[in-house]
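ERR on first pass: missing label on line 2. Operator R.T. fixed the label and resubmitted. Corrected input:
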Amino acid sequence: MAGIGKLNKLSALEIYYQATQLMQAYCACIDEDRLEEWPDFFAVDGSYELVTRENADRSLPAHAMRCETPGMMRDRVVSLRHANVYAKQYFNHIVTNVLIGERTDSTVSISTNYMVTRTLAVDGDPIVFSVGRTRDVLVASDQGLRFKSRRVIADNDRIHTLLVLPI
Amino acid sequence: MAGIGKLNKLSALEIYYQATQLMQAYCACIDEDRLEEWPDFFAVDGSYELVTRENADRSLPAHAMRCETPGMMRDRVVSLRHANVYAKQYFNHIVTNVLIGERTDSTVSISTNYMVTRTLAVDGDPIVFSVGRTRDVLVASDQGLRFKSRRVIADNDRIHTLLVLPI
Amino acid sequence: MAGIGKLNKLSALEIYYQATQLMQAYCACIDEDRLEEWPDFFAVDGSYELVTRENADRSLPAHAMRCETPGMMRDRVVSLRHANVYAKQYFNHIVTNVLIGERTDSTVSISTNYMVTRTLAVDGDPIVFSVGRTRDVLVASDQGLRFKSRRVIADNDRIHTLLVLPI
Amino acid sequence: MNAPMKPEIDQGQINWPASEEMQVPYQVFTDPRIFDQEQEQIFRGPHWSFVGLEAEIPEPKDFKSTYLGDTPVVVTRDREGVVRAWVNRCAHRGAMVCRDRRGKADAFTCVYHQWSYDAQGNLTGVPFRRGVNGQGGMPASFDMKALKLPPLRVAIYRGLIFATFAAEGEVESIEDYLGADVCGMLDRLFSRPVELLGDERQVMHGNWKLYSENTRDAYHGSLLHLFHATFGLYRSTQKGGCKMDQQGRHSLLTATKGEETKDKSATKGLRTYQEGQFALEDPSLLAGTPDFDDGISLVILAIFPNLVVQQIANSLAVRHIHPRSVKEMELVWTYFGYKDDSPAARESRLKQMNLVGPGGLISMEDGEAVELVQQAIARDGDATSYIAMGGRKGEAQDNLVNEAPIVSYWDYYKRAMHISSTES
Amino acid sequence: MNAPMKPEIDQGQINWPASEEMQVPYQVFTDPRIFDQEQEQIFRGPHWSFVGLEAEIPEPKDFKSTYLGDTPVVVTRDREGVVRAWVNRCAHRGAMVCRDRRGKADAFTCVYHQWSYDAQGNLTGVPFRRGVNGQGGMPASFDMKALKLPPLRVAIYRGLIFATFAAEGEVESIEDYLGADVCGMLDRLFSRPVELLGDERQVMHGNWKLYSENTRDAYHGSLLHLFHATFGLYRSTQKGGCKMDQQGRHSLLTATKGEETKDKSATKGLRTYQEGQFALEDPSLLAGTPDFDDGISLVILAIFPNLVVQQIANSLAVRHIHPRSVKEMELVWTYFGYKDDSPAARESRLKQMNLVGPGGLISMEDGEAVELVQQAIARDGDATSYIAMGGRKGEAQDNLVNEAPIVSYWDYYKRAMHISSTES
Amino acid sequence: MNAPMKPEIDQGQINWPASEEMQVPYQVFTDPRIFDQEQEQIFRGPHWSFVGLEAEIPEPKDFKSTYLGDTPVVVTRDREGVVRAWVNRCAHRGAMVCRDRRGKADAFTCVYHQWSYDAQGNLTGVPFRRGVNGQGGMPASFDMKALKLPPLRVAIYRGLIFATFAAEGEVESIEDYLGADVCGMLDRLFSRPVELLGDERQVMHGNWKLYSENTRDAYHGSLLHLFHATFGLYRSTQKGGCKMDQQGRHSLLTATKGEETKDKSATKGLRTYQEGQFALEDPSLLAGTPDFDDGISLVILAIFPNLVVQQIANSLAVRHIHPRSVKEMELVWTYFGYKDDSPAARESRLKQMNLVGPGGLISMEDGEAVELVQQAIARDGDATSYIAMGGRKGEAQDNLVNEAPIVSYWDYYKRAMHISSTES
Ligand code: FES
Ligand code: FES
Ligand code: FES
Ligand SMILES: [Fe+3]
Ligand SMILES: [Fe+3]
Ligand SMILES: [Fe+3]
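pass 2 clean. output:
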């Protein structure tokens, strides 16, 4: 997706399409285990956070994952690749209900619903691992839309076994 | 979404986008527990019905929920808020496969597939609560598209524990 | 959907819309048990294959279902209707993350994520039957877009009980 | 009985206090061995279990598959129109023979080896019984008549179909089993030909007897279910009462629109009895013409072991209890109207489906209540409930603030299960 | 053996009729204690269980993880190329050591504390065994040799790998265990080097022995599976037969394209034997050149306790039974061809994968059949099946309308489990 | 105790070797009857179980619901500010009374029949206790005081709330229960008022005692968790040690930044001790100012039976173990800081949440390790682990390469469960 200039020059429809494609490329990168590309979906000052509704509803800051910079994201990927021990597993992201929110010259807010299944590569049936909503702010860049901030709010406050991959 | 005038003036693409946004705002209102807004997604003469495939396939009229007017919807919301006893829970709507059907000057028929997970706020893992298809008729209004009628047909004929929220 | 001529005449957005509608009509035909129409979503030289990630990752050719021609698809439907014994069941396709890939004059590659639930008509709760990604090549035809090839790659290598319907 | 599958509970293992009040040890809701015994002594014992309505299989060759306790059974109407029932398990190698929930057939063929049976469950065909070319086939000892789908005895009262594993003489006639009061109410509710409106299915993650308690419990009605109170529709200190059969196993709760109590002291401070803060925006929900002129607006008729018949305003239904395990049950609601309903009457029944069932504005709480108990008692099989409202002895009551039918239910349960109280 | 974990079933608890026909009490499919005993007396007893094909671990250092019964085991090929097998449970604190389904390694390091083992399961490394700076570490009594991954004995026949918990002498050689007929068929099927085509995995919600019956059951073939009949492709009154080993535990079913019976009386009225109403639109599905010139087009070879080898037209596979609980099993299909297959031959095998496996047009019904039985018998452990087609005694038959291999299977099962019939 | 619900394990049924090393029979992780006994003899026995932090219910009328063992309990702060605890099961018919995870209330009303209780669990209201118009109501024998929510005794140490089923005198005071070393560490960690940062919940599909071992296991730290090593951040041959209380049931592991061992022989070949191959791109993750000036950078304090208190760099949390079944537990992480944290300090704690918890870069492996054991031992209740690192006897150690706290844990467990070793 080439540079797209001022967002407010684009029709709602065009933004919807580009936001959808961004979201879908983002999910594909995780589901196809191309984690090294994950940080590239964020702006240079982009941030990522995964929290539970239990904490969010109480305005408590505890999180399951928080990367304040793409660097922290890359550090996590290195750790997952070289340090951490976990069963080989696949995420499958079902992301839908992309709802276009506020727009500025350079950003657009969107929300989505998601469901992520986790399937263990050995002896695994797919489990509904996490469900909830995301609140993202997208920004235009020369590569097209990128995440300025992504916040995932899970309905389920429980994590089974461990949390390996981002959502 | 502002008034959109005659639907047949809109491109299929434009209708698809607006129908999708309506559907997604509708789901967000339920999933974010803004139930009081739920009836507002319907036209003044709008109606809602939730049935199972078991009954629908036999052309039997029994339903799990049927609101023939927005007033009945508001009554249900008041009851849920003030009368009924149920465990705190979250729905998460995954709605996709929005398929554009027949169009008239003022209405468009759409169908979708849905999956709703229910997560209990206390000690809850997400369960696949209901899956199936919807058949909706949308109508243009000054606020944009609204449901003239919404019919949810669940594949699963079983409801676990109880049915609190609309789909 | 009428004939759409050269694909490269269409905007990305238009292709996205048409690809989405094709996918959604395809799913509806299976979920509504109109199997006889299933082969018609393929080009005359279209093919279908369902494999597991376990085999695909090893580049092994074993598959769960492979129809090299629409004729083989029709033979399978006849067999399901007249020969095979299985519990009455419903699939529900959640297909999303439609990502537009390479385009040529006459074809477009797309990938999607899917989740299929299976609900037995008797005593059945919905189960997450299969999740994964699809890699499809679509081709323009007089009836609009059709599948030139469809490859479904399931994350889960296990099939519960038996596999009746295509994905 | 097969020892390892269904171990006997010996008396010493159930600790049931012989107290003035009824104190039920929670073990009866959590112990799988007790569940197994209930299948033998209750569902396969000297009782009539509900298996469906004649209206579900109105014509010859109609059938439905269902459960008696947790045993899969099929109810059929044979060519002569006689209702039959049998266990849904092939006599050959045990496959489920009938695989549809309902349909039309006068022969049932097992898919595995195509043994076929008639509507009575008699074996009528065995492929290759005589082999091929004189090879294979059944031995001389093979006797078609000796093999069949295990038959159940059937009894019908007012269009309700009951079945039993018990032999003639082991259980009384259906009329005697139900008793005069129950029969009287069924006569009232089923005096006109019924028409099916459809089914709802609700899974409750709790023991089936918690629901038996719930449907014999006049006490909870106005306290758990706040819909009417919230909308200022009525006070359930209204007239009403409950009756039991002589054995105390069935329960008939009725309420009548009418005079309210003046006994404000009894309701002081109860949320239920505040003025309704809200009014229905669409009152058509409750606008129905009474079906009966006796003023009875509520009937909850619980028939042991697995049936509840309801009349809630204009909403009519039978609820079939399917105990799936010691901690899970499925409740099948079959709604009906009368064939001669006016369009308006039919419309009222459908509107009022919003009041009952798993999503019913009046009744959705019952599933919640059952599960709240199951969750809280998990670890405490030796603790007990305390059931005394309305006094210990389970006698008919002219009020709706008692637990008498529950007390008599448990007294009967102990007899049926051969459980005696432990001296304390 | 650990009493509480695996209670002995005492004779009085299984009621197995000593009838003329074979009548199997359904309890053997539903009682968890019987499942536990099977693990001890069958899967850990004097039997050889299939654990994989040599072709899955062709080179030194290749390994695969799998199950023997429900015990996780690993099969490795050591540096010298010798196949080894051991239980996948660390000698330290019990963690699963090998966490991949397959791979290449000649050392296996447990992730928990990095104890490492060689391909034979010998303990080769223990971090901090001698502590740090003279502190901590293992006591003097520590003996590396005494701790290992519990080894299994391995035997290979024609590239099929079998393993056993039984000591030398407790079980016969693999050749004697299989017997001449089974060995003969394996010689036939594995005469050429095999190439893996991939796996399919199928979960059946039924007891593993229901599948053992199914694969020894010539009787059901033409009655349950209607693909051929529907497309008018053949009648399974074709020539065929079944053989068992001397112990009666294995079963070899074969069918030959050829003459059909003229015995119309035997097939009268059976749907299977109507004229095929349909024709394949794409017959390439079945267009394959026979792999063998002996005319045998169907082989179902069931090897006790956990293997089925199949030749269905050109489709070749081994099916590995993994019993997961008393009411669930996983079946792993491993498809193969021959290394020297022509492109056309390979293509036929892949096309014909549409006929078999969990989605196979011919065979998908078997999973359904297994579950139909499990569902129907749940409450009836003391009821029994009736197995007599082809006569009581389990002798080889020259036809496909008998249950002889099933009868001999159960006779052997009773011996292996030390169950005797109860006099009736 | 209710025999059938919680069968006694008789000695003969547990085979615990009386060996020089600690060999734990895997049965203790897989036998449901042992789980039931643990509920009686450990969680309802003479022990103090953690139920929450005072900071979770800082004000009068605050409450939280949680579990003690697998019994649902509620912890409240009454109007006078006194902390109370009771079993969450209504005295009437057993419904769960408190249905929220936390909130503010000084009266608790059961939804089923609106019986109401005060914050101490005393029964304060029973609707229709005296009936209506003189009908119904409770019998004369009814005694409000006799019925209550079963109360627990509560003890508080440094803001940590403990509760017990044991009566006064059956269990020592909380100070004596914890012992001097544990109290000392709690004094250190809870010297400043705490502020909640939030919770994380992790389900581990393994027995709760596997996690008890894990948190008493200094040995695995540097071998299973490779984050630091990978990024070259430290070697865990750093100084450290472990202490136990006199009974050996609690464990206090600490590590200090500082001198490394020169004992290269001890770490030769261990992946952990290779040079770190990577560097953090964003080192702010670990840039925090120490909270304490004693140089202790790691504290894992495991308090029997259900609490772990952690200090990992600047990350502070209590971990509450909720055993859900013999093979599943839930771990609730409650993170906290100090009320007087500087913004920078608070930011460090939040950043470092990335290191711990179910997705923690340092610690995510623990959940995996617990499950790897549960999976591998399923069939082998009579096999045992081998725990000897650092010698058999469970004495305090000045190093981090020993299993001494695990040995003493099991010694205490056997005493608490009245299990004696079998002579071998
Ligand atoms: S099991 Fe029914 S015919 Fe064989
Ligand atoms: S459990 Fe394997 S090394 Fe400790
Ligand atoms: S169960 Fe609590 S008030 Fe009746
Ligand atoms: Fe009720
Ligand atoms: Fe078969
Ligand atoms: Fe750890």
